[in-house]
Amino acid sequence: MKAICWYGKHDVRTMQVPEPQILNSRDAIIRITLTAICGSDLHLYNGYIPTMEAGDILGHEFMGEVVELGNDVTNLKVGDRVVVPFTISCGNCFSCKRELWSLCDNSNPNPRMLETLAGYSGSALFGYSHMYGGFAGGQAEYVRVPFADVGPIKVPDHMPDEKVLFLSDIFPTGFMAAENCNIHPGDTVAVWGAGPVGQFAAVSANLLGAEKVCIIDHYEDRLELARTQNPNVVTINFDEETVYDRLLEETGGRGPDACIDAVGLESHGTSLDALLDYAKAYAYLATDRPHALRQAIYCCRKGGTVSVPGVYGGFLDKFNFGAAFGKGLTFKMGQTHMHKYMPRLLAEIENGSVDPSFVISHRLKLSEAPLAYEKFNEKKDPWRKVVLSPN
Amino acid sequence: MKDELIECSEFEKTGASRRNVNNPERVASAVAGGALVAYGLKRGGMLGVTISALGGGLLLRGTTGHSVVYDAVGLNTNDLSATSLFGKTPKALTGTVRVKKAVTVNRSPADIYQYWRNFENLPTFMKHLESVTSVGENKTRWKAKAPLGATVEWDAELTSDIENQRIGWRSLEGADIPNSGTVELRPTRERGTEVIVTLMYEAPGGKVGEWAAWALGEEPSLQIADDLGRFKSLMETGLILTTEGQTSGRSEEARQLAHAAGA
Asked: Range of A321's domain?
């Protein structure tokens, strides 16, 4: 089958590889009908994530049709159309039972590395390096899905792929970020970053009843996109005005009640390569430069909430924790607890309140992925979200 | 000669047993010594000679790895057992290794006791074991994989058996690697059962055997952490998730379909 494989920094290739097999009794094999490239895939492309091996299959946003089942998967049948969450969860452990799906105790077969970094390991991810389990990803024609009786969600035939694909990652990610804001009536929510996650965070904040949503970026086309989706959104271009001043203006001097950092370490050229060694040696080294996060802390109103969906990997330098303490802020963060949100968001799509396909900018064939990575990485308009068809 | 695990350099005039300075220290000594010798010669005079002499001593210490001063005070920084790949200092002075690890399993103490008490189940999650078979009343025969593809066999007896609470075992006389273990089960509120495992080994050949295990990446406390992770997964999900055998671009049949972009 065709698969997109990683071979090093800026080296992604379309390969012909064997089709996946059932390896555990709760596996399923999915024939992929649509898949996408995520912003976090660019960290892999740029060589920032350690423990990648040449030949690894990439991709964690995918959907398709069940073609084979392990003996212990009883809730799916061959032919079912499913979207698969990017986190792998067993459904039986303390974390899964408490709906902390992305912190599953059992899905990472190589937990020692993350344990060294953080004390404990969370769940494995598809196509995202060996420290996250080393599972082959879904930028391919077929994929093996572990714990298939827990993860995949069935989707109705009348809903096109483009409408439901983003249930696999970015829509629930934006939604959880907004839910973590603990939105009350009258609240203003400010979102840093108008990439796909920021877009879904803004949409979700509105769905959850925010009085006002502000979105911050410096790409005009992204801010325009936010306006078309949320007519009342306040867009702030940080190249043209001071974010703090504008937010104070928009909130009568109080500051936003909740701030979402949908930027993470993405826009920074920091390397995570030495992370594991540094962790083990307890050397304190800054690897992430959290400009957006610092600003969010600064701008947030007293007693407000800072919500962080946007990936961080290492250590922060000059982190304004004093400001956070002084203002009594609440922080909520982490990898998306996918299984908690997928059914609810499928319902939102079905009843027409959201059409997630609005973030798509390019539709290509799977074999064009190497080109797509290159262009997406350049971050030039309008390469925003690329979906890939395996046929 | 089992003790000759340390590489010998061509400068080594003394036997390995006289080495009491570890390699990084030797390098530092040699470099500092050389620098002092050069400086002393350049400086000249009585002081210069003294400095050179000191430098010479350091240089000798660096090249031979033997320190007279260390001998006098009984210090040995070249004791390999004092270091470990994982930052812990194993109790290698006596050749005994003791590891203790806990994991919480979302099952009742009874379920866990049932599974563990049948020692024939242990190889399903203890990777280093090939088999455990019952050979009599409370007696079992254990077969384990040892480093470098060898196997080791021994008989063991049950030393403690409190239903749903505690299981203990001990190898019998004649075991190549005398060992014993216990597992304690503690119920929790709403979290399942805490499983606390303690294992003790007398490493083969004492310090040397431990070093060998360490060097080959089979550090006991890591191994037991992996074993317990597999046990937890087996008990909670019914399986041990694997990626062995999965497809990738590394497969022999793999071939490239398009030119790499951006390379």
From this structure: 171-333
CA atoms within 13 A on the CB side of A173: 27
Distance (Å) from the alpha carbon of A324 to chain B's nearest alpha carbon: 33
Q: Pull the structure tokens for residue B32.
A: 């500092």
pLDDT at B91: 42
Domain with residue A126: its CATH number is 3.90.180.10
Residues of A in contact with B257 (CB under 8 A): 2, 13-16, 367
Tokens of B226: 């992996």
Residues A141 and A279 in one domain: no
Using a 10 angstrom Cβ sphere, with 0-12 exposed, 13-18 middle and 19 or more buried, the burial of residue B253 is: exposed
Contact B257 A133 (CB under 8 A): no
> How many Cβ atoms from other residues are within 10 Å of residue A178's Cβ?
27
Judge if A231 and A277 occupy the same domain: yes
Nearest to B254 among A15, A20, A23 (CB): A15
> Total domain count for chain A?
2
- A199-214 pLDDT tens trace: 999 999 999 999 999 9
The answer, for B232 touching chain A at a CB cutoff of 8 Å, is yes
A221 in the same domain as A272: yes
Would the pLDDT of B74 be above 60? no
**A314 in the same domain as A190:** yes
ipTM value of the model?
0.89
Lowest-pLDDT choice from A136-145, A338-347, A381-390, B91-100: B91-100
Tell me: do A294 and A320 sit in the same domain.
yes
Bridge pairing between strands A142-145 and A28-37: antiparallel
Q: Do A14 and A147 have their domain in common?
A: yes
Q: What is the CATH number of the domain that holds A218?
A: 3.40.50.720
Provide the 3-class DSSP secondary structure of residue B63: helix
Residue B228 pLDDT exceeds 90: yes
Of the three residues A311, A333, A355, the one that is the final residue of a domain is A333
* Separation CA B245–CA B247 (nearest Å): 7
The reported pLDDT for the residue numbered B93 is 36
pLDDT at A96 over 80: yes
Cα–Cα distance for residue pair A291/A242, rounded to 1 Å? 14
User: Does B256 contact A2 at a Cβ distance shorter than 8 Å?
Assistant: no
* Separation of alpha carbons A4 and A12, rounded Å: 7
pLDDT, position A184: 97
pLDDT tops 60 at residue B213 = no
A94 and A186 part of one domain: no
Residues A163 and A17 in one domain: yes
Question: Under a CB-based contact definition with an 8 Å cutoff, are residues A123 and A339 in contact?
Answer: no
A53 and chain B in contact, CB less than 8 A: yes
